[in-house]
Every structure is written in structure tokens, then in C-alpha cells.
Amino acid sequence: MSTTNSIVAVYDTHEQTEAAIKELQQAGVDMKSLSIAAKDTHTDEHVVGYYNAGDRMKYWGKFGAFWGGFWGLLFGSAMFAIPGIGPILVAGPLVSWIIAGLEGAVVVGGASALGAGLVSIGIPKDSVLEYDTALKTDKFLLIVHGTPEQVSQAKSIIEGTQHSSYTVHGDAISA
Fold first, then answer.
1. What is the value of pTM for the model shown?
2. Confidence at residue 57, expressed as pLDDT on a 0 to 100 scale
3. Predicted pLDDT of residue 118
4. How far is Cα 50 from Cα 64, in angstroms, rounded to an integer?
5. Are the C-beta atoms of 139 and 11 separated by less than 8 Å?
């Protein structure tokens, strides 16, 4: 079993999340190691759409510019309708972790499909439930997964951003 090295930061707004991603990018953090997840609860305010246009994903909605800007940088994108949470948008490797969790029929007591994806990379179940709750309350999750050194670098950057909280998982804790 491989060692898990990740940091999960919770942000209150898309502006805070976007600023953190830009700081990580400017510091040279590999964008393929980043994932974003957020609930899309604003369907009554705007037309919402998500579609593939060639090699680019497109999204209409309140946060269309936010998602559109990052789907070109991050590896993979999807929308999931998760019972108990509702529709969430996901970008980055978290997409494949969720799909792998669903295809592997990973059952995490009380956790969602998102939780199954996070558990599959070694995030503890207690933390997964915390992240599900954050999504339910319209927070944004930013996940960096990689070597202890990569996660330690991301931690030093995330510490200086306007996050609600963050947790480091794995060997990077001592880094």
C-alpha cells in the first residue's frame, strides 16, 4: 500500500479558492496534482450547463468563469449528483478517484461518492465526513496530492491563503 500524501484545504468562497490556486501555480506546484470540488447550489439564479466542446469542458452558471479558467489547467473534470450533497463540480485527479471508488464499489459508511474517492487515496474516514459537510454548506475543497515534498510545498503556500481550514494527510505531516 502506498503512503498517502495530501493536503485538503477548505475555502468559503470561489475567490479565495481561485487566489490559492493562482499562488500554487505561481510557486510551480504541478497543476495535475490539484483537485477542486464544490457544490453547485445556484441553479435557480442562472442557467446551468456542463458540456464537452472538443478537448475543453464548458460550464454555464454563477461560477462559470471560475470553473472555465481552471478546467484547462487541471487534469479531468466532471459533474456528479451525490445523494445527500446534491450536484457537485469536480476538477483534477479527484474525478478519477471518485470513478474508481464507484467502479470498485467502495462502501464508506455514511460517506458519499466523493468520500469513496478520498478514502481510495488514504484520506481517513473521519476527515472525509468533514469534507462532505463542508461541501453541503457550500464550501470549496482544494486538494493537493503528491510526494511529501510536494505536499509540504503546497502546505507552506496554503497556510498564507484565506482558508477556513486545512489538513495534511500522510508523511507530509512531519515535513
1. 0.77
2. 47
3. 86
4. 9
5. yes
> What confidence tens digit (pLDDT) does each residue in 93-142 have?
888 887 777 666 544 455 567 787 888 888 888 898 899 899 889 899 99
Is 74 a residue whose pLDDT tops 70? no
Residue 58 has pLDDT above 60, yes or no: no
Length of the chain: 175
Q: What DSSP string describes the chain?
A: -PPPEEEEEEESSHHHHHHHHHHHHHTT--GGGEEEEEE---TTTS--EEEEETTEEEEESTTHHHHHHHHTTSS-EEEEEETTTEEEEEESTHHHHHHHHHHTT---TT--HHHHHHHHTT--HHHHHHHHHHHHTT-EEEEEES-HHHHHHHHHHHTTS--SEEEEEEGGGG-
Residue ranges of the domains in the chain?
A: 5-43+74-174
Question: Is 158:143 a contact under the CB 8 Å cutoff?
Answer: no
